[in-house]
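Hey, I was hoping to borrow your eyes for a little while. A protein chain has come my way and I'm curious about its shape. Take your time with it, there's no hurry, and the full record follows here:
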Amino acid sequence: QVQLVESGGGLVQAGGSLRLSCAASGGTISRYAMGWFRRRTPGKEREFVATIRRDGASRYYADSVKGRFTISRDNAKNTVYLQMNSLKPEDTAVYYCAAERSAFGFRIREIEYDYWGQGTQVTVSS
């Protein structure tokens, strides 16, 4: 069973950048498509942000972050990244890393992911 730990969150001004990392242990992420989700309101469902296929060849983004966020992975380091540029106050959320085992990838629903990290807080001030 793979364990995921996010890092890199923090407080940033609008227009700034952050890079989130998701380090995996207990398994190799090369077996998984990886995704980033966020929860902007406590108690509400996590919303899809981005996903990347096992080999990193293809990525898919939510419309709200397309052109500003980039998901990438380094299977040798067992780590996934989310580069966030041009941040907006509405990007404020707890960001979660997740792994899922499908061969095709491109899953965007929370329920389709098998493993989750504990989340990292991103706060964007206006």
The CA atoms of residues 24 and 78 lie 6 Å apart. The longest strand covers residues 18-25. The two ends are 40 Å apart (CA to CA). The chain has a mean pLDDT of 96.
